[in-house]
């Protein structure tokens, strides 16, 4: 039986995967050193977001040892920060990226990752500043445009966010991470059907990765189609992890329905003097 810590971690990871995909894309694939926040580099080829809680905790410890030996290595520090964030330690993740941003104050990859860490801590204005400083107006980077849009979505500026997502798609047509995040914009608004349309398009693109398909599984599950969601998730996760994620969605939706029923009951009660 999963523990409360495991369930909480799973929920955080589902939400992190869904809402922060564009910010991760702002780092993955940038630069010549092939930095990526999606995998743990030399320690394993397995993406962080497909690991079990135990695997993720162990991977974070291994990355921490590498980071202690060479804290100014961009790839190691960025991967360590990503692992910390996925493992539920957003504060330490931010501390790692803040230190790296001091060492590399003009590095676009580092600033993008720093913006991701700031946003994960709810420091959205600072996150926007970091991502915008990383951008070069005369040579706009679609990954940074999408990252800025993801932050704007989280502070409720959906119209501005969607304009930027579409700008990113002009720069990089049919990019799956941007399509998926545009879908998440509609999830935040509660328009799950439109969200699913964008996410299915994202998942069908040749460059779609695990996080894109997990987001599709998430939005399908949020509509109550749990068997279909589990089938999609099982393409990326172990059967046990896929079942656990769907179980968490079921629990989350059941709690939402319970709260809605309580609110409806409160509304129906006659007012007392």
Automatic annotation (TrEMBL):
Family matches, as SUPFAM superfamilies: TPR-like
Residue ranges of TPR repeats: 142-175
Signal peptide interval: 1-30
Protein name from the UniProt record: Tetratricopeptide repeat protein
Coiled coil: none
Keyword presence, Oxidoreductase: no
Gene3D superfamilies, per the entry: Tetratricopeptide repeat domain
Top-level taxon in the UniProt lineage: Bacteria
Record keywords, A-Z: Repeat, Signal, TPR repeat
UniProt-listed InterPro entries: O-mannosyl-transferase_TMTC, TPR-like_helical_dom_sf, TPR_rpt, UCP035836
A Pfam short name: TPR_11
Organism: Mesorhizobium erdmanii
């Amino acid at each position: 039986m999963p523990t409360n810590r495991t369930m909480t971690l799973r929920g955080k990871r589902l939400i992190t995967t869904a809402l922060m995909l564009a910010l991760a894309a702002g780092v993955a694939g940038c630069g010549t050193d092939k930095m990526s926040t999606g995998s743990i580099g030399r320690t394993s080829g397995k993406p962080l977001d497909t690991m079990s809680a135990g695997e993720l905790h162990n991977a974070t410890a291994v990355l921490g040892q590498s980071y202690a030996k060479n804290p100014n290595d961009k790839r190691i520090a960025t991967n360590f920060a990503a692992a910390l964030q996925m493992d539920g330690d957003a504060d330490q993740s931010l501390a790692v990226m803040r230190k790296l941003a001091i060492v590399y104050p003009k590095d676009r990859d580092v600033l993008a990752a720093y913006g991701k860490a700031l946003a994960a801590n709810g420091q959205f204005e600072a996150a926007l500043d970091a991502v915008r400083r990383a951008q070069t107006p005369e040579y706009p980077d679609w990954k940074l445009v999408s990252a800025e849009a993801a932050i704007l979505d989280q502070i409720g500026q959906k119209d501005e966010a969607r304009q930027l997502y579409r700008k990113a798609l002009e720069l990089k047509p049919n990019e799956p991470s941007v399509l998926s995040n545009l879908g998440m914009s509609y999830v935040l608004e509660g328009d799950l059907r439109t969200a699913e349309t964008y996410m299915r398009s994202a998942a069908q693109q040749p460059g779609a990765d695990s996080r894109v398909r997990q987001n599709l599984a998430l939005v399908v599950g949020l509509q109550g189609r749990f068997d279909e969601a589990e089938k999609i998730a099982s393409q990326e996760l172990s059967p046990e992890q896929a079942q656990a994620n769907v179980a968490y969605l079921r629990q989350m939706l059941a709690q939402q329905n319970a709260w809605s029923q309580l609110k409806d009951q409160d509304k129906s009660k006659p007012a007392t003097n």
